[in-house]
Design a protein that fits this description.
mainly alpha, 170 residues, 6 helices
């Protein structure tokens, strides 16, 4: 009888321990290569508890990425491949030349040509300049060579719209 009671107590203790350990989780079954501070604290607490239970010192924990965050390296602006201007049409070249006269020099011709094409398509669909402005300024402002110290992004948007309509949407 004593033996059966010992087995039952052991099984209950094992189930309770499993329940306690499961309660420590956050129901996230995905694996992450970067431990979170919560995970690290849980691991340290588990190591300390194990060390106390076994009478051995807790092992040292390596520094976590939360303590030494990894920062991405900036991409140099020279990383853009040189533009192949041999494939540009006369219309493309006129448009790019006019933008440059207005103070806009895109990082690559593709950026300006995409904005010009957007303006032409929007105009053909009946969009007003105000409707186009939101997207044109967003595209112009995301150009790596755009410098807001030289001109406001709204002014760049106005130049793109006017220049597109005058030289590119024909």
């Amino acid at each position: 009888m004593h033996r059966t009671r010992g087995k039952v107590v052991g099984v209950v203790a094992a189930i309770a321990a499993t329940g306690l350990l499961a309660a420590c989780g956050d129901n996230d079954s995905t694996v992450s290569s970067t431990p979170t501070r919560t995970t690290t604290a849980t691991q340290q607490a588990t190591s300390s508890t194990t060390a106390v239970a076994t009478g051995q010192p807790a092992p040292e924990q390596p520094p976590t990425s939360a303590e030494t965050p990894e920062r991405p390296q900036p991409v140099p602006t020279e990383a853009a491949p040189p533009a192949d201007t041999s494939k540009l049409t006369d219309k493309d070249k006129r448009f790019l030349d006019e933008l440059q006269k207005q103070g806009i020099t895109p990082a690559t011709p593709d950026i300006a040509l995409s904005i010009g094409a957007y303006v032409c398509q929007g105009t053909a669909a009946g969009a007003s300049d105000q409707d186009l402005m939101t997207f044109v300024t967003a595209m112009a402002g995301s150009d790596p060579s755009f410098d807001p110290a030289k001109m406001p992004v709204e002014r760049a948007g106005q130049i793109y719209i006017a220049t597109s309509k005058a030289t590119y949407c024909q």
